[in-house]
Specification:
single chain; 357 residues; alpha/beta; Nucleotidyltransferase, domain 5; 3 domains; 12 helices; 9 strands; 48% helix; globular
Length: 357
């Protein structure tokens, strides 16, 4: 008999607290295991029945998913942020709650990607971290100069040929030494940044869809690589309506008292939707990619005409740019799903997306 068992795991760096419940919610067992591959693999191999496992997204989530997924029926990596905690909280209680929520289908699954995309995903993560480090170092450099009343707008302060002149302007020896160290950090980070960028693009070129995406206006090699690594399989999004929230491009609408009864018939009230801005839970890199692409393409055809038609409809410029970003993301999803090349003639067929804003 293939009995279903539901396993909740509370994981930290050293220990996994595990509780197992059956289909009726009855307690089956509880155990504590070290967070090591050999012990976890042996434990799940020893379980009988149809095993469903849940644990929270975190530093070790990808590793645990790869380790456990081949051994059980299903693995759910979940996001429980925003849940209200009532009463006490602890590792055992968290494991019990995860098992219960898994059994009742209440967990929000976090996509872990397919094995073929995980390498590219790690390359993208390394590139993004280096971009953040470069920006942080540049900000510290300018802050050091501003602390002595020196104006340093623009990029001249970063040029190697001008650095000696900039260092001479600092009248404090200790600060001059710190700025010199920051220049050395910047040189090292810029070299690593280039290496990470080249590795990411090389990894993206292994995917068949890269040649299609890179031809789309506004994307280019870096943005195409980021899309491929983050989206993974496009078929997990049924339509663009599911893709937009993931990219942070979905407008949140709050409504109440939507209907009224007129002559015994239900009728929707005729009043404008009350929007509350864009959705807050999204992938930040994808939002940056599509909004950056929209800013690039509105200056040239075919999106220039599309953008102008939105402006002519009295749509605010910021909302028109959002609509262009949504259009680009919808085209990208279609390209990934169908394998067809970008067709510029289809961009201006209709401006129906403006109604989605």
């Amino acid at each position: 008999m293939n009995r279903h068992k539901y396993v909740g795991m509370d994981v930290d760096q050293s220990t996994c607290v595990i509780e197992i419940q059956d289909k009726a919610g009855n307690f089956v067992m509880e155990t504590y295991l070290p967070t090591r591959a050999s012990e976890l693999r042996a434990f799940f191999k020893g379980l009988d029945g149809r095993i469903h496992v849940a644990f929270e997204e975190g530093t070790q989530a990808a590793w645990l998913y790869e380790l456990i997924e081949p051994l059980v029926e299903d693995v759910v990596v979940c996001d429980r942020r925003g849940e209200k905690v009532r009463g006490n909280k602890g590792d055992r209680l968290d494991a019990r709650m995860l098992a219960r929520q898994l059994r009742q289908g209440e967990l929000r699954r976090v996509y872990q990607g397919e094995r073929g995309h995980r390498e590219l995903k790690e390359l993208i993560r390394g590139y993004d971290y280096l971009v953040e480090d470069v920006v942080r170092t540049k900000s510290r450099l300018k802050a050091a100069f501003r602390s002595r009343g020196l104006k340093c707008s623009g990029r001249a302060v970063y040029r190697k040929g001008d650095r000696e002149d900039w260092l001479k302007k600092i009248d404090v020896d200790a600060l001059r030494a710190r700025v010199s160290s920051l220049y050395e950090q910047l040189d090292c980070l810029m070299r690593l940044h280039k290496e990470a960028k080249d590795a990411m693009i090389t990894g993206a070129k292994k995917h068949p869809s890269y040649k299609l995406l890179v031809k789309q206006p506004g994307l280019g090699p870096v943005r195409s690589a980021q899309i491929l690594g983050i989206v993974g399989t496009p078929h997990r999004f049924r339509t663009k309506r599911q893709f937009w929230p993931y990219c942070g491009l979905a407008v949140v609408v709050h409504e109440s008292s939507e209907y009224e009864i007129v002559d015994g018939q239900r009728r929707r009230r005729k009043r404008p939707l009350r929007t509350r801005g864009l959705n807050k839970n999204f992938n930040r890199t994808l939002k940056m990619v599509f909004k950056g692409a929209a800013k690039t393409v509105i200056a040239r055809e075919p999106f220039k005409q599309y953008y102008q038609r939105l402006i002519d409809k009295q749509i605010r410029p910021e909302m028109a740019k959002l609509t262009v970003a949504r259009k680009i993301s919808a085209i990208t999803l279609s390209i990934l799903k169908t394998g067809e090349e970008f067709d510029p003639n289809r961009v201006n067929q209709a401006v129906s997306d403006s109604g989605d804003q």
